[in-house]
Amino acid sequence: VFHPVPRALRALCSKHKIQLQVFGSLGYEWSQGRGATGQFAKRSSPLLDHPQVQAIAHEKGWSAADVLIKFFLQQDMAVITGSGRLERIQQAFLVHGLRGQLSASVLESLHDLQGF
After folding, report:
1. pLDDT of residue 23 exceeding 90
2. What is the reported pLDDT for 15?
3. Which of 11, 47, 14 has the alpha carbon at shortest distance from 29?
4. If you write DSSP's letter for every residue of 39-95 in order, what string do you get?
């Protein structure tokens, strides 16, 4: 599925007021893995390139990364991002303030992405 945060775990954490924190939310860390050198094998993410994520981004006028980060923020998850580029780090901080929200149906469709 899209990201290894099962619905049951989210419900349990919510019930006990435990803050969930996600890392690798753009798909690089957990989908690509790191080789013996500690470097990514590829510089692309199947999540950022996924047609469904791209369609949502186009519809909203956001980047694919904005869609994925907003997906977690709307569920009250803490998001850890990283980049070697200052402008990408700055953009990640701006996502919370984006106009609009992802609808409940869009959130549900992202929960159910397959192939990762």
Report:
1. no
2. 94
3. 47
4. SBS-S--TTTT-HHHHHHHHHHT--HHHHHHHHHHTTT-EEE---S-HHHHHHHHHG
Rounded to two decimals, what is the model's pTM?
A: 0.75
- CB 88, CB 52: distance < 8 Å: no
| Per-residue pLDDT at 78 | 85
Question: Under 8 Å CB-to-CB from 10, ≥6 apart: which residues?
Answer: 20, 75
- The rounded distance, in Å, linking the Cα atoms of 110 and 114 is 9
Residue bearing the bigger pLDDT, 77 or 116:
77
- Strand, coil or helix: 106: helix
- What are 4's two structure tokens? 């290894």
The answer to whether residues 108 and 1 touch, using CB atoms and an 8 Å cutoff, is: no
Helix/strand/coil (H, E, C) string of 30-48? Answer: HHHCECCCCCECCCCCCCC
| 22 sits in which H/E element | strand 21-23
pLDDT over 70 (residue 101): yes
